[in-house]
Amino acid sequence: MTNNYFQRLRFINASVLLILFLSLPSTSVLSEEIYPNSETVELSDTPEVNIMEEISLLYHDLHVGTVGFKPSYQISEAFDDNIFNLPEDEKSDFYTLHKMDLGVESPIFEHARAYADYNAEIYDYERFEERDYDNHSLKGAVEFRFSNDFRFSFSDQIRKYVIPPGVQRRYYNDVDFVGIPIEDIGPLGFVERRDLIANMANFDLDIPDFFPNLDFSIHYENYDVSYQQEEFENSDFNTNTIDTTAEYQSPFLPIKISSGFLYQVRRYNTPVYDGIGKNIPFIINWQINSKNQVHLENNYRISTYGSKSDLEDFEGLGTILRYRYTFNPVSSVEISGERSVKEARAEDNNAFFYTAVGIKYILQHNRFSSSIEVNYSNYTFFEEIEALGKVEKINSVGVNFTIRYNPQEWWFAEFEYAYNRGDDTIDVGDLTKSIVSLGVGLNF
């Protein structure tokens, strides 16, 4: 899918970012702490403070001159009792997970900065070596920020991903996290290993605040995915997305309201999947008081396909409601619910009703933090499966428990347990899966 023009353009963008990062001068800009996901870091509105003064206040930052470094490493030992996500005759195994991250950041001049971030995840299985794989990501960006909340940035990220072999399901996120929209091949489709490279080029513009309590932003993204095995090349795709957002902060009540419009063009090596996606969000955040917070989100999505496609057009409305109650400074509870009509990513294009509820308790005290979450979801598809003569329905229950201990700022220990059970009207679609892991990490 990626033609020579786009390859040259990405190479030029990456080269420009690297040159800017390494060679441009830097003087007096205030930089906040460099997190592993550096895109969340913003420049301060007080550029008269020297960056070296700010870096010296950060207890674990490393720096050479005005260039700051943020390395981190975590190793976890985990046990998965169903590594291939099979409905029966499950296979279990231990695996070691290595997570590494290096963030680098530097000011360019008074109102700009450049940053880069590299991270890797390496999975090493004890018995089933065919499940071994590693993911890598490299991101570079330049951000400019001026007065009156005027800001814009350019970024480019390259990701190398692997979809390991195993049963791919509609309701278990083996593939969803890499954004592959047509890899859903049904309730029991065994997916062979797939190696892919994804490139994401982004432009973000935060328009100056000409009106009090009102903010406008524009975002553009080009997302390209290429499979490395020749037999999967027809699944290569490219999307171009542009979305605008308007946010209003009430001067009388602690309420934020935002809305906008998203337009996406999707192109595949196989034209039958080409389409256009649209989304109209409407979001309300209400901080009722210091203890009560409400988030309400509605999304109206539309997908249309070309004349060469056999896929049906789609329209669906989704509603998400979250409520958080803070008992005291160290504990809180979150309750969430969703009712949506969603488009299936399977080739049969069978849309479904999605209903989900969940509750999560969070405890943070001194060096300890922990959470426990219980959730339930139901998938009910619109149309019956002709070969079986019935409608597919899936009921899924999940439990997640985590506890983290930070005896010192520069290292931590972490325990996680996750359980998922899916009951499908199609027997081969059932799933029972548990993962237990124990890890330690370093943050510098």
Write the layout of secondary structure elements.
Blueprint: H1 4-23, H2 51-57, E1 62-64, E2 67-80, E3 93-109, E4 112-125, E5 133-146, E6 150-163, E7 166-168, E8 189-191, E9 194-206, E10 214-227, E11 237-249, E12 255-268, E13 275-287, E14 292-305, E15 314-328, E16 331-342, E17 352-365, E18 368-385, E19 390-408, E20 411-424, E21 431-443
Antiparallel strand pairs: 1-2, 2-3, 2-21, 3-4, 4-5, 5-6, 6-9, 7-8, 9-10, 10-11, 11-12, 12-13, 13-14, 14-15, 15-16, 16-17, 17-18, 18-19, 19-20, 20-21
Fold and architecture overview:
The protein is mainly beta and about 450 residues long. Helices cover about 5% and strands about 60% of the residues. The protein is built from 2 helices and 21 strands. The strands form 2 sheets. It has an 18-stranded antiparallel β-barrel. Strands 7-8 form a two-stranded antiparallel sheet. Strand 17 (about 350-365) and strand 18 (about 370-385) form a beta hairpin. The longest helix is centred in the N-terminal third of the chain and has 20 residues, at about 5-25. The chain is globular and about 65 Å long.
